[in-house]
Amino acid sequence: MAFDLEMIKACYAAMPGRIAAARKVVNKPLTLSEKILYSHLFGDQKLENFGRGKSYVDFAPDRVAMQDATAQMALLQFMSAGRPKVAVPSTVHCDHLIVAKAGAKDDLQVANTESKEVFDFLSSVSTKYGIGFWKPGAGIIHQVVLENYAFPGGMMIGTDSHTVNAGGLGMIAIGVGGADAVDVMSGMAWELKFPKLIGIKLTGKLSGWTSAKDVILKVAGILTVKGGTGAIVEYFGEGAEALSCTGKGTICNMGAEIGATTSTFGYDESMERYLNATGRAEVAKAAKAIREHLNGDPEVYASPEKYFDQVVEINLSELEPHLNGPFTPDLATPISKMKAEAEKNGWPTKVEVGLIGSCTNSSYEDISRAASLARQVANKNLKTKSEFAINPGSEQIRFTIERDGFIAAFDKIGAKVFANACGPCIGMWSRLGSEKKEKNTIVHSFNRNFQSRNDGNPNTFAFVGSPELVTALAIAGDLTFNPETDYLINENGEKVKLDPPTGDELPTKGFDVKDPGYLAPAADGSKIIVKVSPTSDRLQLLEPFKAWDGKNLTGLRVLIKAKGKCTTDHISMAGKWLKYRGHLDNISNNLLIGATNFYNEKINSVKNTLNGQYDEVPKVQRDYKLHGIGTIVVGDENYGEGSSREHAAMEPRHLGVRVILVKSFARIHETNLKKQGMLGLTFANKDDYNKILEDDTIDFTDLTSFAPEVPLTLILNHKDGTKDTIKVNHTYNANQIEWFKAGSALNLMGATFKKEGPAKSNGQGLKAVVAKAKAGVKAVAKAVKKALKKKTAPKKPVKAATKVVKKAVKKAAKKVVKKVVAKKKVTARKVKKAVKKKK
Ligand code: MIC
Ligand code: SF4
Questions:
Q1: DSSP label at residue 227
Q2: Of 63, 293, 448, 658, which residue is the catalytic one?
Q3: What does the alpha-carbon distance between residue 618 and residue 646 come to, in Å, rounded to a whole number?
Q4: What is the tens place of the pLDDT at every residue in 135-181?
């Protein structure tokens, strides 16, 4: 069954007209990314040739997806926005809160008991506000979205950085913080700086041990974790068309690891096959009908360097399987070089555990190829050396791979099948012995491998590879095993070689599932009361942040100067902390506990300048808060890399940090800071990072004239009485400065709603749109009548004449509706219904 088919059809009906209008303004051939972006401008957004990497643009995404760990904060904010219902189709997915320990059944039961309060909260909020709810065990957000909601040419946002996975089905899908989701669900515009465009041309064809995962592992090696910042990556070429749709999903998924705003592919047969296989033949048919609009213009792909800001070319026929890591997803090593690299760097080479699945690599194709290797273990009389585990991406996948015998094949090599959830990927892994903090190596097919991420052990070296390679390495138990060239010794002492993996792109018998785990919202949720207990330690209603007092911030202390990589996992750890994602005060106790303090090179140990003692970061910050002293956090490059979790911005805000000053930001985190009323600033001169000393107090001199594109000035008052004056940059536009002034974007939204009543929006603006349509129909009818009167119409009997008039009105009305729909984002069906009623 296809969800929201009418919305998709309306989107397609409007697309050609919108693209034509954009073409006139941009005046050159268009990339696919531009076509989708330009056809999703918000109603009031003026159409112009937007500056890539410069113009802030208002968009109207088609849908919103949220996962349980971020949905709690997003929905708490949505509740304070005071809207009766979501303005666009939205869903919640319970996937992050299930600890992987004994196996799917037991683990799910434990989670359903331990997190009952949170799941109940999420399901009642969803039911009330018209949000589709996917229960615990139903699957991981991005896999479920790909299977059910993603559609070529669509635009969506999601409160998870891997929302970008839906690019595999030709979407522009973007990871955001909860406050952004609240904007869209409230029917307001969603603002994004018009992205730059990176074109990646894929030539050749994958074969043997190489898979789609290796494409993105290679790209990450080329572009690094910062290389995609502020850009959309568009893949094209014969190599792209030869990839499966789910393979494309894997590539887009890990685009988050290069900081890309999103990645996408043009519509092709692989997408058609996937849509058909997942019960969405109607979507495939509708997409096919406008296929030219769901691909970049041929001129673009013929001379990409003219139309993209950067072009990369990869020949899939020459691509080698890769392993990326440890501790960062862009440290790419082709498998043939792993032996030398591991030796050089002292990486432990014994593989303790191999893990496959997750939102990144859970397709039928992935699992079937990995299973083909598992089957070889018995056939070749081998023994699997490492532990092995699987996290299926959805119940539909799990059900189908069980039916087709793959689970049984993994069972035979001693695999544990965990719940259809994130589990070990996000530290929800009760791994035996991890508390001993021993140096060890694991390999997985997930996307991230930051320190401590999987099992909380900072000494676990995690390497990312394709499910096939992970399975082979787990069988061999050796990180340096190259299945393309190396032999294994079997139980009989014979030398054997693994055959390259084989599998099916899609199940020949079709997908199947008994209970997908979906709960539709109530038709009328207005009577539903959402309860949050004031004594709960899992959920806490939000208090608005204080507005800015209009004065320069002065006397700020340095809470921490973070050294090196400081991802959102360092700022707000996941794992055991996930359970506090709905309770701002409780989760704030993990603030920056993973970051390394520049001044003493220690983790979670900073100086409290009020007493000179070193203590844990949250404790020191709470002391400053108690004394009413504002603080500043200083950071390095790509600060806030990784997750979309806005807790990494809300926690410092809640505890009284006023400024985050860094060499550079990751996109989502920078926006999250702005939304929560924080000052996110960058050094104008990166070397000034070195000027900030541990005992400094810091003053702004010109915050009172905070304005777009005007740098700010800071005075660093050093302990020895000397001073330094430094310039800092920011990217706040006029509207974002208002968020800062109001204390947060949500405060400003609340104030606007109070003043203006319901904002014009997708749903709310319907009245205005219908009025326009009606006026148009009336005008046409009048014109036809007039024509008939003047006898300029064909002289036919009255009945026939009436028919002519009716036909003319209908035709004209259709035209008007189409035009109006093209201008505003509403479904044609709704407008037509309203017009009919009026007639
Ligand atoms: C992740 O992969 O890091 C997460 C957990 O899915 C996050 C979201 C979160 O922190 O809840 C993400 O990628 O945005
Ligand atoms: Fe879950 Fe991991 Fe995917 Fe994030 S990356 S959504 S934690 S499976």
A1: T
A2: 448
A3: 17
A4: 999 999 999 999 999 999 999 999 999 999 999 999 999 999 999 99
Q: What SS3 state is found at 460?
A: strand
How distant, in Å, are the alpha carbons of 78, 295, 299, 531 from that of 167?
26, 13, 22, 37
Query: Taking 80 as the threshold, does the pLDDT of residue 817 lie above it?
Result: no
pLDDT, position 1: 73
Any idea what DSSP says for residue 262? E
206, 268, 656 from 238: Cα distances, Å: 11, 11, 53
Do the Cβ atoms of 87 and 761 come closer than 8 Å? yes
- Report which residue type is found at 37: L
- Of the CA atoms within 13 Å of residue 122, those in its CB half-sphere come to 30
**Of 460, 461, 462, which is closest to residue 436 (Cα–Cα)?**
460
CA–centroid distance for 738 within its chain: 26
Confidence (pTM)? 0.89
Beta partners for residue 572, in sequence order: 591
Q: Is the pLDDT of residue 833 over 90?
A: no
In the chain, how many H helices and how many E strands?
29, 30
At residue 680, the 3 state secondary structure works out as: strand
Cα 92 to chain center, whole Å? 14
Q: Determine the Cα–Cα distance for residues 663 and 686; give it in Å rounded to an integer.
A: 6
Residue list, ligand 1 pocket, CB within 6 Å: 69-70, 96, 160-162, 175, 426, 448, 574, 642-645
Nearest CA to ligand 1 atom 10: 645
Strands in 252-319 per DSSP E = 262-265, 310-315
**Strand 657-662 vs strand 679-683: parallel, antiparallel, or unpaired?**
parallel
Give dist(CA 571, CA 577) in Å, integer. Answer: 12
Minimum-distance ligand to the CA of 568? 1
Residue 345: burial class (beta carbons within 10 Å; 0-12, 13-18, 19+): exposed
Amino acid letter, residue 487: Y
DSSP string, 313-324: EEEGGGPPPEEE
Q: How far is residue 220 CA from its own chain's centroid?
A: 17
Of the chain, the end-to-end C-alpha distance in Å amounts to 33
- Residue 36 main-chain phi, psi, to 5 deg: -70, -40
CA distance linking residue 820 with residue 822, whole number of Å: 5
Q: Are 641 and 689 in contact (CB under 8 A)?
A: no
Which ligand 1 atom is nearest residue 160's CA?
A: 14
Q: Whose CA is nearest to atom 4 of ligand 1?
A: 643
Give the single-character DSSP code of 418.
Answer: -
* Closest residue by CA, ligand 1 atom 9: 645
What sign results for the dihedral spanned by CA atoms 493, 494, 499, 504? Answer: negative
Average pLDDT of the residues in 201-205:
98
Rounded distance between C-alpha atoms, residue 180 and residue 646, angstroms: 10
- Which sign does the torsion angle of CA 673, 688, 227, 38 carry? positive
